[in-house]
Structure formats: structure tokens, C-alpha cells
Amino acid sequence: MHIEADVVKEYIENSTQVVIMAHRNLDLDALGSSLGVYYLCKTLGKKACLLIEDDQHEAGVARSFSELNRLKINLQIKKFSQIENKIDAKTLLIVLDTHMPNLVQNELALQIPNIITIDHHIIGEGNRIASSYEYIEYEQSSSVEIIIELLSHLNIYIHPYIATIMLAGIFIDTNGFFSKTSKKTHEGAAYLYLCGATLKELQYLLKEDIEKYNDRQRVISESKIINNQFIIAVGHEHYLYDKEDLAKISDTMLLFNQVEASFTIGKIDTDTIGISARSLGNINVQMIMEQLGGGGHASDAATQLNGDTLEGIRLKLKSIINKLEGGL
Ligand SMILES: [Mn+2]
Predict the structure, then answer these.
(1) What is the pLDDT of residue 124?
(2) Is pLDDT of 328 > 80?
(3) 121 alpha carbon to ligand 1 midpoint, in Å?
(4) What CATH number is attached to the domain comprising 243?
(5) Separation of 326 CA from ligand 1 center, angstroms?
(6) For 86-128, what is each residue's pLDDT tens digit?
(7) Exposed, middle or buried, 130 (CB in 10 Å: 0-12/13-18/19+)?
């Protein structure tokens, strides 16, 4: 499957203006893909804006914005209240990096009459955005990878720094080109290098707080290998993790000898505990997560549980793994 670049182009050309919106808590893939689409609209001579309600951004995104500013790359960034009365019947909304109505920057924007949704997340239960055209493909590593296919098909070369931000989006979503990476992913990266993306700038963008890194390392250092091929790490009792933190820890643990599947359990809310599961492909972690009320993909799955303790969930997971082992 691939995105129909000509269809997307036609929607843009037939619109009066384009509003570009990703999920809340903008990350580098959401920002990178948004900037790619913004550039596409500008190249096609369209009025476009990024709809961003978030006031605070994670470090990489904040750094991207200040650098774009310094480089005088002029972006139209608006809140919904600023564009509300300018929406007409031919306004086009392009939603990126999510397909869930409740995750977007502002749900009110979904009243825009024409919507294109582009995403790479697993289609879960629950509502998805009603769109005129949608392309949701789990096999693609990132939203950026999909947008590059659009840009390269239309022969559009973007600004070097935007290319770097897009490369960072792929880098984060693939855990440094380790997971979900295909020929298409590397072709996408090659295209970004052609546009002038640099690894040096990428490294600056991805710098993180030493504390955050150490927190993940502490969780990893206390992880336990069980039955020679599974590894389980448990987060700290009094610490709330982003789902991305749990995923990053599971991704890292796949690098260890013997490990075929990894699980990270951690509090993601005061009364919600999440598990992020990863596999190299020989063990189906989706089936394991389904037994705990979750889901996902064979090598990439997760769940969320309420009303239990970290230790209680660790024991449940362990017993599911033991039963599985007995059945092998
Ligand atoms: Mn993404």
C-alpha cells in the first residue's frame, strides 16, 4: 500500500485554504510531518496554517521551533479560535500522526468540511476521524515517512532544517532505525539527506535531559530476564511515565543477549498502569497483551490497566508467560 499522492494534491489544489493539525503533545514525527505538508501546500501556492493549541512542548519540538524562528522560516501557526470564522465550504483539514478524534489538538477543528487523515498508528477500537480521504498504514514507520512519499512523488524539495526535523521524527519513531524500519524508511531518510538534513543538527535536536535518561537506565538496570527469552522491567512506584518512555525502555531491552520479547510496566497516571511490549518477531506479544485487555501488533503491543498494583501486574504477566512457555 502507498499513499495516493495525486489524490492528496487534488484535494489541496481544490481547496481555498489548508489547516494542518496533528495530535496534542506534539512530538517530532507529528511536527515533522506537519511541516512537510505545510511546505507542500505552500509549493502548490495555497494558504496554509498549522493549528497548534499546545503552549508547552517537549524539548525536541521546542528546540525545532526556536531554530525555525532563528532561521526566519516563516510559519503560520494558529489556534482554532483565530481561524474559526474564516472556515468556508472549501477549507481542507489535514490531520497527521493520529486518527483518533479525541487526540487531536482541537476537536472543534473536525467540523471543517473536508478532511484528509494520514497516520501510521495501529487502528484501535473506538471512533476514528470521519475523512474524505484517509491513509492509515501501520507498516510505515512514521507519519514523516508517508509524507516523504508525497513530497518525492511530487518532486518537492524542502528546506534543509525542515528535512532535519523530519529525519528526527523518523529517528524517534523507529528507535534509531531499529524498529519498524524498511527499505521505504531508508529511502525516506535518503530523500531528506538530499534536501540537506544533517546528522549534526539531528544530534542537537535529540539531546535530552540527563535525569530522564538516567531514570530509564535505572528501570532497565532492575529488569529481570525470565525463562531465558523474556525480560520484564518495572517502573518506580512514585513516578509517572509517558507511554513513550515505557516504549523506549522496551525497545532498548530488545538489544540484550537472549531477549526475544520485552515488557515495561509503569504508572502512566495516578490510577492507571501501562505495559509496553516489544518483540523481535519470534514471539507474538499482541496475544500476550490481549490477555491483559490490550492489543496491538505481533511485535509491538500495549495495554493499560486500572485498579491494580505494579507488582500485581508483574505477577499476572509472569504467569501468562509461564503458561505460554508450558504450551511451547
Ligand atoms: Mn508518529
Answers:
(1) 75
(2) no
(3) 7
(4) 3.10.310.30
(5) 37
(6) 999 999 999 999 999 999 999 999 999 999 999 999 887 788 9
(7) exposed
Give the pLDDT confidence of 239-276 residue by residue, as tens digits: 999 888 999 999 999 999 999 999 999 999 999 999 99
Domain containing 313 equals 211-326
Distance 16 CA to ligand 1 centre (A): 28
At which of 157, 184, 206 does a domain end? Answer: 206
Mean pLDDT, rounded, for 209-215: 92
Q: Which helix (H) or strand (E) holds 145?
A: helix 143-153
**Adjacency order of strands within the sheet including 133-136:** 77-78, 47-51, 17-21, 91-96, 114-119, 133-136
8 Å CB contact between 131 and 117: yes
Is residue 77 located within the same domain as residue 199?
A: yes
Q: Is the same domain home to 125 and 157?
A: yes
Same domain, 232 and 281: yes
Please state the pTM of the whole predicted model: 0.89
Q: Which helix (H) or strand (E) element contains residue 203? A: helix 199-206
Nearest one of 51, 50, 45, 52 to 9, comparing CA atoms: 45
116 and 40 in a single domain? The answer is yes
Task: Give dist(CA 24, CA 52) in Å, integer.
Answer: 8
Using the mean position of ligand 1's atoms as its centre, give its distance from the Cα of residue 78 in Å. Answer: 22
pLDDT single digits (tens) 31-41: 999 999 999 99
Q: How many domains, in total, are found in the chain?
A: 2
Instruction: Give 107 Cα–ligand 1 centroid separation in angstroms.
Output: 19
